[in-house]
Predict the 3D structure of the following.
Amino acid sequence: MAERTVVQQVISYCKTLKVLYVEDHKESQLASIPLFEDIFGKVVTADNGKEGLSVYINEERNSGCNFDLVITDIQMPQINGIHMIESIYKINPEQKTLILSAYQNEEYLVPLINLNVNGFIKKPLMLDEIFRQLHKIFKKELGGKEYLFAENYRYDAENKRFFNEDQEIMLTHNEIKLLDLFLNNPRQYFSIEQIFDHLFFDNPLKDFSSHSIHGILKRFKNKLPENFIINNKTQGYKINESFYKNP
C-alpha cells in the first residue's frame, strides 16, 4: 500500500470527527461552514461563547460524548472565546481546541498560551494553514500507531487493518469506526444509543435501531478473541483492558 501524504491522512481522520464551531460574525461563519463541513464529519455551530458553552454542555449531557474539536473566535459578545474555553476545560481538561482570530493582540495571546490551547490560526483562513494546525493537534492520532493485543492480535491504526499474527481480519467500515471508538476511549463504556450516534452521526435521517447495532456488535465480536469487547448491562460496551496493551 502506497504511503499516504500528510494531508490525505488528516482528511481521512477528520472525516470521523464531530466539531463545535463558535463564531459571532455571521458573514465569517456562513463563509467558513462549507469549508469545515468538507473537512469534518459533523459541524455544530454557535453564535457566541455563551451559546457555545451551552451547546457543549448539552452535547455531553445528551450523548455522553464530547466534541472532538472546538473551533472558536476570541472576541464575542456575552462570553468571549477565552472564557468559554476556560469553562470547557473545567468540564473536559483534555478537550482539543483551535482558535481563530483576525488579531494577534498580546492581551488575548497570553491567556491562550496559559490555557495551553492546541492551535491558533490568524484570519483570513487559509486551507494549508488549517491542515497544518489539524496535523499538529491530532499528531498523536495520526502517528501511525500500532496497537498490540493478547493472542497475537494487532491493529494498524493508520491504515485501518486488523491482524491475527500475519493473517488480516477483514473489518467493515462500521467495525473499523467501532474499533477506533473503543481504542481511543479504552476506559469508557458506550451505550447502544451512543454507538449508534457515533456510527451514523453523518446520516441524521437514519432512524435509530437497537437491533441493527446489536447485529453490528455481534458480527464484530465474532471476528475478535473471546471477551475482547465486554458488556455491562447498565453501562454498555467497552474494550477489555486486559487485552489492550497500549492504554
